Amino acid sequence: MNRFRVRVFSLIALFFACAVGARAQDAPPNVWFQGTRLIFDHAVASQGELMVSTRDAGMRRFLDRLAATVSYQPQQRYVVITAADRRTVVFTLGDQSYTAGGVRAQAPVAPLADGDDAVLPFYALARALYVEPVATPSEIVLQPRIGALDVRTEGGRTTVTVRAAMPLVTTTNAESSERVQLSFAGLGSSLAPAGRAPGTAVDSIGVAVAGSTKVPITTITIQGARGATHRVLASGSPDAYTVVFESARGSVAVNAPPTPPPLAGWTPPPAGAAPGYPQTATTQPAPATAAPLIVAGRATVTGLAIEPAADDALAVRVTLSGAASYAWHRLNDNRWYVDFQNTTLTGPGRDEHPSFGAVQSVRVRQTGSSDAPAVRIAFSTTGQQRIDLAPSESGLVITVSTATTTDVARTGTGRTGGAAVVASAASPDPNASPSDTGGGTSPGWKFGANNGSKIIVLDPGHGGADPGTQHYGLVEKVLTLDIAQRLKTLLVAQGWTVRMTRETDVDPVSAENIAKMRADGKANPDDRAYLQTRCDVANNAGARLFISIHVNSAPIESARGTTVYWYKPQDAPFAQAIEKNVIPLAGTQDDGTRHENFYVVRHTSMPAVLIETAFATNPGDVALLRQPSFLQNVAQGIANGVKAYAGSPSANALSQQQ
Amino acid sequence: MLIVLFAVAVAAAWWFTTRAKQSAIGDTITVYYAKADGTTLVPWQVSLNPARGERGDAALDRRSTIFYAATQCVAGPPPGTQAVRFPAGTHVLAVDVQGSTADVDISKDVASSAEGGFAESAEFKALVWTLTQPKFGIDSVKVKIAGARVATLPGGHLGLDEPLSRSSF
Ligand SMILES: [Zn+2]
User: Fold this and answer.
1) Per-position DSSP letters for A243-279, written without gaps between them
2) Rg of the Cα trace of chain A?
3) Which of A120, A307, A582, B17 is the most buried (most CB within 10 A)?
4) ipTM for the complex?
5) Looking at A154, A178, A476, A612, which residue is catalytic?
6) CA–CA min distance B4, chain A (Å)
7) pTM for the whole thing?
8) Residue A321 in contact with residue A300, Cβ under 8 Å?
9) Residue B124, Ramachandran bin (φ over 0: left; ψ between -120 and 50: alpha; else beta)
10) Which region, left, alpha or beta, applies to residue A295 given φ > 0 means left and ψ of -120 to 50 means alpha?
């Protein structure tokens, strides 16, 4: 059977290869994009598609303009294009079916391999990247479009995010606090012209397109609820624009104690009876908030997998074809359900009694009317469980934890399965399954080896051509040297001999190490930061302890605090002593100690730590890092940690002699 | 007689097609991303479509699946999900599989900005956990940057000189 399939595949591939070859001399159509003509040098038109090689200059230019990247390797089956907003478009060689942002679609012609490159259906790819090929009498115009409008509601707060193919150039016209008009020049739209969402902080959204095919203008008008206020949020991506509306009563609703929603027609089961649900939709309570703003095409629930997850949680994976809006509701009698609007169920409903974790039953039903079908998935649990919703590429994952929640959120909405997948903001982070693996497993390390040395090596992170992290005017290499010099003074006063991997603004890389790392094939591209030199300082000196000092940074502003990293088991108690002593003096958040494969702690032979003192990306930590007193306190905290861990050097030397 | 043969042929064709489709839809892989705390990993499911399992070359299947998983991990979870992500533009250039080791070649965008140990650690932890999920039969991950072996990222902290495994983190 496999061989049969291989042959069929080869035949299909051959057929397309021949078709491509036969038309090779056909010039591709004129394609206009962003003010210029795209020149394709490895492309052929075929069955209404334009088949273009990944090495084609026009393809490269197109993808560069969209900041999209191609991953393809000869002898591989898949070609993965990553869009600027991190959605992936996945083609399979020899297969017309492809996925864009997890949603499956069909191209008229299958992609195929061409030597070391892949030949892709270009129009299908363009659409997946939110660029619509529009045929005019003389040419094909590639029109960038607004690809998605995500709306999510949490309590009295509704967030509207616009996503597009290109960085958005927005003209905002706030007509009042309740109403805002956004104009996007150069972008078309295929979004539904208008939608309403009564009951949320946004009443309606209107979409209008003006201008020409080549220079379209899309205007989105968002009408907030009465008394609502709005503000623009940083979306973290130039291709997205986010406006938050807050209703006047929003904050009150969120903070109010949970009140039971009306339970029309629902009679609780008698005590001791098996938990159950109303059999028909008509007996279910009416949703507290309505949801879908933009009515998408009808979606179908194609699969439902119920499986154990970490920590005895139960995960229900709902597979959807197409995009769907959903609304979830928590009832006060340990029931929870989610409705997928405008969605149908393939096959009959389902009743499961997994008796796993905190879940007593899971019930799946087709509800709603033929005009407005909905699929309801309802849980009965032992208590008010924490329930997390996470968008997967193909639908939604509902995780029911064994932990209960005091979260007062009773309802939330979201949208999933479509080009833009958005989890309901009312549900907290998806539950994590793997936690830190804890202790190191490398054999052969000696615990707490006290070599009796009086030498401590301090390693101020980065230096010279390697500035380390730079934010808010702070430069890591300057701060690390400052702290190290303060620490040196304190440790010398304790009686230690202190050696520094650098005393000035240099990158300590020895010529001999550069030669060695080249010979080993481990060259960093520009010879920067070959950290072995720093390790050598400590290893060659036979140092008692090694301390590397750094300033952290994160792509998320909220990350803050102090972490001490270790690798070898013998590092762990030293790391704990440092963390414990630094936190009270520095006043930073205690992020604990972490086992991590950091080069300088791994390649040093004595107890070693790397301290990330604070985040140069968190405003609160930045304010601290600007104060010399903070740098001094960090140094003092580390010195105290050294004393707590290793005592004084003379005592060490003494114990070694005995 | 001919009609019976034809019916059998149609039934067989239907059976093969249905089977292939079922295996295609049912097949998912787990991809991890790191939450905003930089250390907690969140698994999410990515369907291995389209049409996996139709051609049945086990080695190609495994290699392609691992490549697919690496590309999805580097791309990160869907937009709007708060996660510690690889720097913009980072993508997988190649993945070679030898026995239980995957050798991942990542574009130089990964080193485009010198960042703290926080992000490096979160990114590579997610990648290693993704590639070492049990069904891949991989237990260690080697890393190349733009085709070159490196000791660390330029200005980096994480050791990339030795293969990484789940116990590295
Ligand atoms: Zn650093």
Assistant:
1) EEEE-TTHHHHHHSPP-PPP-TT--PPPTTSPP---S
2) 30
3) A120
4) 0.82
5) A612
6) 22
7) 0.67
8) yes
9) alpha
10) beta
Domain that holds residue A95: 11-129
> Mutating which of B15, B25, B49 best tests the A interface, going by the most A Cβ atoms within 10 A?
B49
HSE-CB for A104 with a 13 A CA cutoff? 20
What gap in Å lies between CA A636 and CA A59, rounded to an integer? 57
Name the 3-class secondary structure at A63: helix
Assign residue A385 the CATH number of its domain.
Answer: 2.60.40.3500
Indicate if A503 belongs to the active site: no
Q: Do residue A358 and residue A397 come from a single domain?
A: yes
* E strands present in B48-145: 92-98, 101-106, 140-145
Q: What tokens were used for B13?
A: 């064709």
Q: Is residue A423 part of a domain?
A: yes
Query: Given pLDDT bands bounded at 50, 70 and 90, which one contains residue B22?
Result: very low
Tokens of A264: 């029309």
Same domain, A237 and A314: no
Ion ligand 1, residue ranges at CB < 5 A: A 461, 468, 550
Contacts A2 to B, Cβ<8 Å: 55-57
In this complex, do A80 and B32 lie within 8 Å of one another by their Cβ atoms?
A: no
Distance between CA atoms of residues A491 and A144, nearest Å: 61
- Within a domain: A191: yes
Please give the C-alpha separations between residue A657 and each of A10, A448, A449, B75, in angstroms, as whole numbers. Answer: 76, 17, 14, 57
How far is B88 from B74, CA to CA, in rounded Å?
10
* Those residues with Cβ within 8 angstroms of residue A642's Cβ, 6 or more apart along the chain or in another chain: A456, A491, A494, A496, A545, A547, A577, A578
CA distance A289 to A343: 18
Q: Are residues A470 and A597 in the same domain?
A: yes
Nearest beta carbon to residue A524 from set B71, B107, B151: B151
- CATH code for the domain of A78: 3.30.457.10
Is A433 within 8 Å of B41 when comparing Cβ atoms? yes
Judge whether A449 lies within some domain: no
Q: Which long-range contacts (CB under 8 A, 24 or more apart) does A38-41 make?
A: A38/A62, A38/A142
Lowest mean pLDDT among A230-244, A247-261, A351-365, B114-128: A247-261
Same-domain pairing of A527 and A607: yes
CA atoms within 13 A on the CB side of A480: 35
pLDDT at A570: 86
Mutate to test the interface with B, among A6, A78, A346, A609 (most CBs of B within 10 A): A78
Q: Are residues A321 and A376 in the same domain?
A: yes
Per-residue pLDDT at B90: 93
How much is the average pLDDT of B81-97?
Answer: 91
Residues in B closer than 8 angstroms to A67, CB to CB, are 88-89
Same domain membership, residue A614 and residue A471: yes
Dist. CA A232–CA A223, nearest whole Å: 14
Q: Which of A72, A97, A129 represents a domain boundary (last residue)? A: A129
Instruction: Tally the domains of chain A.
Output: 4
